[in-house]
Amino acid sequence: MLKKIVNEAFCTVxxxxxxxxxxxxxxxxxxxxxxxxxxxxxxxKQEVFIPGSSLKGVFRSHIEKIVCSLKSQVVCYPFELxxxxxxxxxxxxxxxxxxxxxxxxxxxxxxxxxGEENRRTLEDRTDLVYAASCPxxxxxxxxxxxxxxxxxxxxxxxxxxxxxRDGVGIDRLTGGASHGAKFDLQVVSExxxxxxxxxxxxxxxxxxxxxFIVLQDMEHELIRLGSGRSRGLGQVKAEISLKExxxxxxxxxTSTIRKSGEPDNELWGLGRWLNNSPEEDxxxxxxxxxxxxxxxxxxxxxxxxAMRAFIxxxxxxxxxxxxxxxxxxxxSWTGRYARTFLPSAVRR
Length: 348
Ligand SMILES: [Zn+2]
Prior knowledge:
Radius of gyration: 22 Å
Structural class: alpha+beta
Largest sheet: 8 strands, antiparallel
Bound molecules: zinc ion
Distance between the termini: 27 Å
Strand content: 15-25%
């Protein structure tokens, strides 16, 4: 990880169920206690929540498909195909290899296994690991890199409502295969709201675009959450909260350390920040990594940070400009960093 903070972005996202949501589940054939939402003790009572890790997983796999549609061989498949069984379990291996790069985590693990010196390189040179990582691993992380986004557990912000659904009935409704067995599913009802906080640190502009695509697709109810998605469960709608939270203004907030030198009408990504310093280019970022903002967004000092809150038209402009930056960056992604970037790189 970079030993300093050049920029950050925050937002609170309100997720409202627009259909029954099954948060945690075992296999489709299993019924009983495993098929209940994840519960936690909060204020002395049992309450349902959505784990941040499961939100992160859903966001990641959504983005993988999108990047793959823009350009193949850019993102990696996030698991290591290190056994014959695993390779054989994939029905169309050729298609997978055409669409996706080899797992970044897999490449790093392989590199680390070659000896102590390599292992130390991976630990000490996060700049190289970052540069060698594919776009989704740069944002969401891999076995060798923690990633730049943190997503908190989503807790209830409305009345909770849970109900039992007849699992077989749901199968019948959605035309899915019914296994004949009668089982009940405990689900969160429609109209229940949760809130999660998303925090990006040392982001590149295209990573904002990546995040905005997920948020916009959630706003349009195109991303389902939880288990039983093939049964028609997990329909949700999301929006960025405009409420002030934890001393932070509402909307989409970007921040830098005060008096950082970023012009008022620009938003700088990691690449633009790094290229003013000796770290130049080691992270595989670009000097052109910045946006010109539509208008002047007033900065508010909060402690050591200077924050800018984007709402309304400013938010829409920021979103569209970052998404465009993301599309261009993905389509021009070369992937040249993958193996060759590491010292005495591992070869096939
Ligand atoms: Zn990767």
